[in-house]
Design brief:
Blueprint lengths: L2 H4 L1 E2 L1 H13 L7 E5 L4 H6 L3 E4 L8 E4 L4 E4 L8 H7 L6 E6 L2 E2 L5 E2 L2 E6 L6 H18 L3 E5 L2 H5 L1 H6 L3
Parallel strand pairs: 1-5, 9-10
Antiparallel strand pairs: 2-6, 3-4, 4-5, 6-9, 7-8
Pfam families: Cofilin_ADF
Protein name: Glia maturation factor beta
Subcellular location: Cytoplasm; Nucleus
């Protein structure tokens, strides 16, 4: 079964992702949102809805367990990598959309728009599988060109090094 059959984005969510992507291209500060995929245990806990933490700009999404549709709960966005790292779970994967203004080594301004794939070492294998199945759909739906796997808080806090290629 393809990833597009496992998870979906409503037209409204796609529009919010598009607005985030376009709206962050001229931002002076980093901006990010965190998304998660549903897991069987969480689906049961929430009686039809799984809450999705969309942070760094904390956009909490809700995933309808019946349709697997991902939709945002609010439009809050984080701008500090330290705050983002603090809010990420220690044992659950997440997708983070990040727009990070920086200056390249040759002095040009750049605003990379990337998908950070938060995959802590001690996460549940079922959750790893759930996220692995959704990463390509998330990448194409969010229209990012680059996916960066991050495993620790320090990877998030020091993301500028990876974005500039000085890691």
């Amino acid at each position: 079964m393809s990833d597009s059959r496992l998870y979906s984005f409503s037209p409204e969510t796609k529009e919010k992702l598009r607005k985030f992507r376009l709206g962050t291209s001229r931002a002076k500060d980093a901006q990010a949102i965190i998304c998660e995929t549903p897991t069987p245990a969480r689906r049961e806990e929430c009686e039809g809805y799984t809450f999705v933490a969309a942070l760094t700009g904390s956009v909490a999404d809700i995933i309808d367990a019946k349709t697997q549709e991902i939709r945002p709960q609010d439009d809050e966005v984080y701008s500090k990598m330290e705050d983002l790292a603090d809010d990420l779970p220690e044992s659950s994967p997440r997708f983070i959309l990040l727009s990070y203004p920086l200056t390249t080594k040759d002095g040009r301004p750049s605003v990379p728009y990337v998908l950070l794939y938060w995959l802590p070492e001690n996460c549940n294998p079922m959750q790893r599988m759930s996220y692995a199945n959704a990463v390509e759909l998330m990448r194409t739906s969010a229209q990012v060109n680059r996916v960066i796997e991050v495993e620790t808080d320090d990877d998030i806090i020091d993301i500028k090094d990876k974005l500039t290629g000085s890691d």
